[in-house]
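Let's practice the habit of predicting before peeking. Look at the sequence and jot down your guess about where helices and strands might fall. Then scroll down.
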Amino acid sequence: QVQLVESGGGLVQAGGSLRLSCAASGRTFSWYVMMSWFRQAPGKERAFVAAISWSGGSTSYADSAKGRFTMSRDNAKNTVYLQMNSLKSEDTAVYYCAAKHVPRPDQIATEISEYDYWGQGTQVTVSS
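Done guessing? Here is the structure:
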């Protein structure tokens, strides 16, 4: 089991920045664990934002996040981050951290169904 706790959400003006964190505990980084961020806006389905491999060498971003968001990880701290810059009102959503044990250190995935563990979410609100 892996437990995930997100933090760092809040209210920010359009054009501003936020850094989300996701702390993992349990059966964490002693295995290969790929991590992702998803988000869910009101009235919409949960959608992929960014993913990172256990090694950190592989990343993937949704088109809406490319050039503005950066996902990183610190395996020593069992934590992943999502640096969000140039925020827009359409980035308003609950952001969820997700994880899955995988056999390869460079493996990532972008589908919700690929992930076994989820955090409770953190609210990001961007005012225009």
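How did you do? Residues 49 and 63 are 8 Å apart (CA to CA).
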